[in-house]
Amino acid sequence: MTTPITLPRIINAAGHLSVLGGGVTRADLAREIAAAIERGLSSPVDMAWLKDEVSRRIAAHTGAEAGCVTTGAAAGIALSVAACVSGDSLDAVRQLPDAANKPIVLQSGHDIDFGAPVVQMIRMGGGAPVVAGSPSGVMPGDLQRSLEWSSALLFVQSHHVTAPGRLPLATCIEAAHTAGKPVIVDAAAEEDLRKYVAAGADLVIYSGGKALGGLSSSGFVAGRADLVRAVRAQERGIGRPMKVGPEQLLSVAVALDAYGMRAGDDTAVINAIESGLTGLTGAGIAIVDDEAGRAIRRVEVRTLRAAEVVATLRSGTPPIYVRAHHASEGRFAIDPRNLTVEAATEVAAAVRRALEA
After folding, report:
1. Domains of the chain
2. What pTM does this model have?
């Protein structure tokens, strides 16, 4: 008889972070995903058929020509780079990563660490990262010169990209396509599944466990049919250690079908947080928009004791994780997406206690 694991309770007021298991999946969707996975694990599966079927579903939901499931967005970066470097030639696929080392361009400031360096994912796919521009800014000419001998351009759409003076996606797509190079967009935590394909990106990478609400070990790539075919060809090479199973494929299929039906109004949660934090001593609050341009609002708490409060919240019972990227600058944010109204009230009370201690 197996012994079930009892998960300790934590409160995620930080957002869709991998260290907290991604996003919190709605209970009804979790049951539907679990039921699909149970069916997939308890009977034989024609994997080629299932991959083709999920590819069609990804295409239908994103507007792309085809799609491919991956074991997370980071795997999607490595496999997308490999696809642009090797194509679907089996001989070329089997030579990666060492035999290729072909330039992959990204802007200065997009060479981030999201928990691992994005440039390492590029190297895993057989690419040689070429950083265009400088920390002070990127000019169109910087990009054009870098693209001349490259295999592709990687555009990172992420809250980790904080440097000003970066070129927008439209400019990057125009420059890359003028040079005859494909554009890969890392949109791991993005919530609009059609935006980047519609903008002209050739491959777009999403996490399956963040905005999508599926398994945190899943993700998918959507884009041009020939490049998606090349992504799948990596299964005979570097993609083998990143092999997807029925569980990832079925999770993505179910989560995609349910994606448009999810409730997206966090007003009640925001109101509960605001109400609980009104009149703080030694701190101010404000409603702020997402730094990466997504349709997300958060409650930001501004106090010189931000780092201390963040540490106090994490050491409490239950531990409360807030968005602490800027705690050293005197501010942290409460993200509503994984909170109920009751949990939001609990978070606000804990912040108040920490500030008044």
Report:
1. 27-258 (3.40.640.10), 264-356 (3.90.1150.180)
2. 0.88
